[in-house]
């Protein structure tokens, strides 16, 4: 049987998408394993979740690097390579990447974004969809390229925006779909490597 592809999940906070990937990877038939969970903030809640699941949880704090985002990325990149990571899954990783990391992992770094890209890249996606009067929202898994939230789309899931939805209600409905979409798209992606 082909060895499972080693994936690192990069997080900055709660890490519920990372958790969904970890859960999916527990299925023996899953073609990927979560080899590492890496956060840029020590207080990222997802670090404890990963540890509890028996996965290495590493913090490479961005703060000490100040404005030198590339130097931080070089430290992250070294940690990933030391562990033989093959694919990066950004999962609520709240850093704008420099060309260094984007180029180093071209075609091997995925992200999940809580909108139907190309609509609403960036932040506050749910409030923006509601304010625009949209009738549907959703989430997108895409390859990471230089432009923020701009890379080739690998998969999307849609949800209805219901009358009376505020951004919290909509975010919760979209998040459920994120947790289904990301493991499915990542599995398909690594099968194609
Ligand atoms: C998710 O909505 C994801 O789409 C976005 O940031 C949020 C992270 O949530 N990129 P979590 O940390 O995975 O719970």
TrEMBL record:
Residue span, Formyl transferase N-terminal domain: 6-186
Pfam families: Formyl_trans_N (PF00551)
Record-listed N(1)-(5-phospho-beta-D-ribosyl)glycinamide binding positions: 15-17
UniProt pathway annotation: Purine metabolism; IMP biosynthesis via de novo pathway; N(2)-formyl-N(1)-(5-phospho-D-ribosyl)glycinamide from N(1)-(5-phospho-D-ribosyl)glycinamide (10-formyl THF route): step 1/1
Protein EC: 2.1.2.2
GO molecular function, one term: phosphoribosylglycinamide formyltransferase activity
Site positions (Raises pKa of active site His): 149
Residue numbers annotated as active site: 113
The keyword Amino-acid biosynthesis is annotated on this UniProt entry: no
Residues involved in (6R)-10-formyltetrahydrofolate binding: 69, 94-97, 111
InterPro entries: Formyl_transf_N (IPR002376), Formyl_transf_N_sf (IPR036477), GART (IPR004607), GART_AS (IPR001555)
Reaction(s) this enzyme catalyzes, per UniProt: N(1)-(5-phospho-beta-D-ribosyl)glycinamide + (6R)-10-formyltetrahydrofolate = N(2)-formyl-N(1)-(5-phospho-beta-D-ribosyl)glycinamide + (6S)-5,6,7,8-tetrahydrofolate + H(+)
GO cellular component entries: cytosol
Keyword entries, A-Z: Purine biosynthesis, Transferase
PANTHER family on file: PHOSPHORIBOSYLGLYCINAMIDE FORMYLTRANSFERASE (PTHR43369:SF2)
Known role: Catalyzes the transfer of a formyl group from 10-formyltetrahydrofolate to 5-phospho-ribosyl-glycinamide (GAR), producing 5-phospho-ribosyl-N-formylglycinamide (FGAR) and tetrahydrofolate.
Protein's name according to its UniProt entry: Phosphoribosylglycinamide formyltransferase
């Amino acid at each position: 049987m082909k060895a499972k592809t080693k994936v690192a999940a990069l997080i900055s906070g709660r890490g519920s998408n990372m958790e969904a990937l970890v859960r999916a990877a527990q299925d023996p038939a899953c073609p990927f394993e979560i080899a590492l969970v890496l956060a840029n903030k020590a207080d990222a809640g997802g670090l404890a979740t990963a540890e509890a699941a028996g996965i290495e949880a590493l913090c490479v704090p961005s703060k000490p690097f100040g404005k030198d985002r590339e130097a931080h990325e070089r430290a992250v990149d070294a940690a990933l390579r030391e562990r033989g990571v093959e694919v990066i899954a950004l999962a609520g990783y709240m850093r704008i990447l420099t060309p260094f990391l984007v180029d180093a992992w071209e075609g091997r770094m995925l992200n999940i974004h809580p909108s139907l890209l190309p609509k609403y890249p960036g932040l506050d996606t749910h409030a923006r969809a509601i304010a625009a009067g949209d009738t549907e929202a959703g989430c997108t898994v895409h390859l990471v390229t230089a432009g923020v939230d701009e890379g080739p789309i690998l998969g999307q899931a849609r949800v209805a925006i219901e009358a009376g939805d505020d951004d919290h209600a909509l975010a919760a409905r979209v998040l459920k779909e994120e947790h289904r979409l990301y493991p499915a798209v990542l599995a398909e992606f690594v099968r194609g490597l």
